Amino acid sequence: MNKKQGISVRTVVAIGIGTAIFFVLMRYIPIPTGVPDTNINLAYGFLALMGAIFGPIAGGLIAFLGHMFNDLTWGEPWWTWIVADGIYGILFGLTRKYLNIENGDLTKRKLVLFNVYQVLIAILVWGIIAPTGDVLVYSEPASKVYLQGITSVICNALSVGILGTILLVAYARTRSKKGGLKKES
Amino acid sequence: MKKPIISFQDVSFQYQSQSEPTLQHLSFDIFPGEKVLIAGASGSGKTTISRLMNGLIPSAYPGKLSGKILINGKSVTDQTIFDLSLRVGTVLQDPDTQFVGLTVAEDIAFALENDGAKQSVLKQKASEWAKRLKIPAILNNHPQEISGGQKQRVSMAGVLVDEGKILLFDEPLASLDPVAGRESIELIDDMQKNGETTTVIIEHRIEDVLYRPVDRLILIDQGRLVANETPDKILKSGILAKLGLREPLYLSALKYAGVDLNQVSNVDSVDKVNLSAQTTQALQQWVKPVSARKQKNDATPILQAKNISFSYDSKQVLNKLNLSLNGGEMVSLVGRNGVGKTTLSNIITGFLRQSAGDLILNGHKINEASIKERADHIGYVLQDPNMMISKNVVSEEVALGLTLRGIAPDEIEKRVNETLKVCGLFEYRHWPISALSFGQKKRVTIAAILVLNPELLILDEPTAGQDWQHYTEMMTFIQNLNRKIGISVIFITHDMHLMMEYTDRVVVLNNGVIAYDDQPMKLFANLDLLKQASLVETSLFTLAQRIDVDPEALIASFINQEKVVQANE
Amino acid sequence: MNNNVLIGYKQRDNFVDRLTGTTKLIGLIALSVIGMVSFDTRFLLVLTICSLALFRLSGIKFREVSFILSFITAFSVLNLIAVYVFGPQYGVHLYGTEHVIWQGVGPYNLTWEQLFYEFNLFLKYIFTVPLALVFLMTTNPSEFSSSLNRIGISYRISYAVSLALRYIPDVQNDYRQISKAQQARGNEISRKGKLTHRVKAAAQILLPLIFTSLDRIETISQAMELRRFGKLKKRSWYAEKPMKRNDFLALLVIALVVLVGIYLFRVNAGRFYDPFR
């Protein structure tokens, strides 16, 4: 076989299709929380799955590109949050080795640890990196952007905790060995 | 003697993920300039053969290979998927996944872009091949704007630009309507005649491929080669039906009439098959005159559409359409792709709202009813079962609609079990859906709708992509539902034989209105309408014309006999 | 869900339209970044006026974008109010002076500094809108990935962007069919019910979409390998446009604007232009 140059074709396609889905979820299918202007973004539950399957490069680019396209269609590329999203995606990609989801052995322990991890990275990215970026770059009042940050931490951790977990479990099931099935009367 | 361009020598292959080999000791040669059809029921291993030829094995599907495969005299194991792609051009089954460019021109040029060709070469080749495949007018169109047949032409152009020697088609007819399918087979034939290409077609719709002659037919069953002969010899041997494949209809008719196929020449084409005086007489005697069809007169309509109009992007799709359906009816809804069949069914189910007109269900207007409210009476099953399945286990999936309606658990269990039994899925109730075959999945989606006790079922292409055996199972299943629980069924279909054998009424949609609404048989006499609906007459019709009998009578005799045969099995 | 929201491109045949995607991409990134960093009001005003002028030149009709404009206006106003609520003294803090216009309760008074600061924010919110819309609506999506490749991004990632644009309409269509089919069974994304329930219901709807898409990733990558994607270190692009004189001129102007922006940091001894001293 040829020596691999750069990322695999499968990863390229995963980034393309993943970005398309991330964009559609973010742009068109927000779940209102009841608090004005705050939605649960389903794209993040999806991102958790894509990161776990395809790794950090795919995770990072899906989030970065998907968020960028979304912002562009509103005419407002908010670079600090776009970059933060890219970091979030990379961090999800780092779970690939540990979860080893493509072989289907997703234990309860792994799921619990994954959820601890996802809450931590939500705090890191949406509670610290993104708002700090806004303070430094856009020079907005800290109390405002950190409050926005905390809201995002909660919403995104919820999206990943519920949708992400459901998707991971469902995906792992499709990958598990099919032996031992018997017809029952 | 010529040297083979493709040579399989005692080839066995086992996928890494499977416990049994998919191919076993396969040997055959294909020679330059030949046109070969490789056929087999689903699961026979025919797709694996194509993956071995184009290098997807081992690049995308690892496994254990033994024996030797030579392409152009060189072993495939010494070549990468990229090397092989220059020799073997593959047209995949689903044109939507093969079409990766943003426009037609870009997609045709895709392979050359990857070779780093100059832009002037890209433009020249793209327009040249678009012309040769008769699609120059759509060069700048997006994939969303063109038909399935056009997409397949783009796919063909996209591999022909390599001017490789071998063209490999993986189920080219799977996603096309009959007219587009015929055009595609004609086009493959023209390409074959003009160039020096070798063509390999993998298909289970043998009669449709034989619309244009092929040199050789290779039959695969359970990973083994069972025949490698001219179509004429294989068709005479009558082996197809034993492999779960459909024999050309006109040949089955000849057999039913007691004709010995070994005494007949040119059996591979309905137009050329030699009908001696004796054969003709046998057929004419076999055909029974039609007894007047007993009309089910359940005169109360369950669903009426009155003056329904709908437009999309300022294009009028439906224009004051009227339709009425009676209880217990089985109806085919036909028309060319994009004519509005899906739109009409989406309006009936409430997925879309009509811009004018009324829908009346059991005498009550349902214009304002929600999707969910309508679903208690009207069930809609999408073509692709994977688009409907959202649970992991069969019984959970079937229960979903009831659970969401807040029905008591023991009632749910009772209804789910009943439905599973009706659908022949009860033994699989604890299985993960991912372990089921395509046909079984389809049945799960039907069960998940049936459990809501609808009075009307709309099935979008229920038999698409299935070989004859699975097709027969699916249709028998639906027919039994209709008989047992009296449910009305609308089939959205292109399958002429399905219309004739299983439905009493065909509704043709054209130009936003119902262009025809009557028995299937009478539609075949109306060639103009057939063409508008993108349908083609079956070979039984052609046969009837050749022996000068009433096509309706011949088809009816055929269907009766087929039922007898099925009952005996 | 209109298929053309993102790909609102149509050929308009004017000066902006004829620039290469590369030029427009560099322009969008460079200008939006410098405008994001700078707090020089004069500079931001000029940027805003220029980008509005560009919008006029591009020939985009107002009604094509009116929905987005009204959304952005609402978004900006809400944000500006939030900034005032959370930091009524933030302007005073930034500029170090206090000119009170109206004395309110506690910290909630109104100062020229606060007004001025929020005016800056307002300009920052809106100046990108015409730029981004011009970029989206005058750049041929086919040309976009070749532009990314030209500015140094690997062709694999550039092609991934092209694939995203190719499949967004398909994903939208699939989603529509799938969600309606789920609604028929009683499953929908509603505003009622407990939040966790709503997300779980959404998961049921999304599962078929996501799993059919994962299958699709496999077949598409096979289809691409069968046509030699990834064979070489480079690839050529059917839709690539050559850089012309106007492109270089435009890039020169963009570079000048950015340089002026950076120069103003020195003049102002920081990012802020302060009229109060």
TrEMBL record, chain A:
Q: What is the recorded name of this protein?
A: UPF0397 protein IV87_GL001143
Q: Which HAMAP family match?
A: UPF0397
Lineage of source species: Bacteria, Bacillati, Bacillota, Bacilli, Lactobacillales
Please report the record's description of how this protein sits within the membrane: Multi-pass membrane protein
- Organism of origin is Pediococcus ethanolidurans
User: Where is the protein situated, by its record's location annotation?
Assistant: Cell membrane
Q: Which GO terms describe its cellular component?
A: plasma membrane
User: What's this protein's family per the entry?
Assistant: Belongs to the UPF0397 family.
User: Does the keyword Coiled coil belong to this entry?
Assistant: no
From TrEMBL, chain B:
Q: How does it sit in the membrane?
A: Peripheral membrane protein
Give all residue intervals belonging to the ABC transporter domain. Answer: 6-247, 303-536
Q: List where in the cell it is found.
A: Cell membrane
Pfam families hit by this protein: ABC_tran, DUF3744
* Keywords assigned by UniProt, alphabetized: ATP-binding, Cell membrane, Membrane, Nucleotide-binding, Repeat, Translocase, Transport
Q: Name one GO cellular component term.
A: ATP-binding cassette (ABC) transporter complex
Gene3D superfamilies recorded: P-loop containing nucleotide triphosphate hydrolases
Among InterPro entries, the record links this protein to: AAA+_ATPase (IPR003593), ABC_Co_transporter (IPR022216), ABC_transporter-like_ATP-bd (IPR003439), ABC_transporter-like_CS (IPR017871), ABC_transpr_CbiO/EcfA_su (IPR015856), ECF_ABC_transporter_ATP-bd (IPR050095), P-loop_NTPase (IPR027417)
List the Gene Ontology MF annotations in alphabetical order: ATP binding; ATP hydrolysis activity; ATPase-coupled transmembrane transporter activity
Q: Which SMART domains does the entry mention?
A: AAA
| Family designation | Belongs to the ABC transporter superfamily.
Q: What does this protein do?
A: Probably part of an ABC transporter complex. Responsible for energy coupling to the transport system.
Protein known as: Cobalt (Or cobalamine) abc transporter, atp-binding protein
Q: Which organism is it from?
A: Pediococcus ethanolidurans
From TrEMBL, chain C:
- Give one Pfam family, short name only: CbiQ
Indicate how the chain sits in the lipid bilayer. Multi-pass membrane protein
Determine if Thylakoid is one of this entry's keywords.
no
Regions that span the bilayer? 25-55, 67-87, 122-140, 248-265
Keywords of the record: Membrane, Transmembrane, Transmembrane helix
Q: Which domain of life is it from?
A: Bacteria
Question: Which cellular compartments is it found in?
Answer: Membrane
Gene Ontology cellular-component terms for this entry are: plasma membrane
Q: What is this protein called?
A: ABC transporter permease
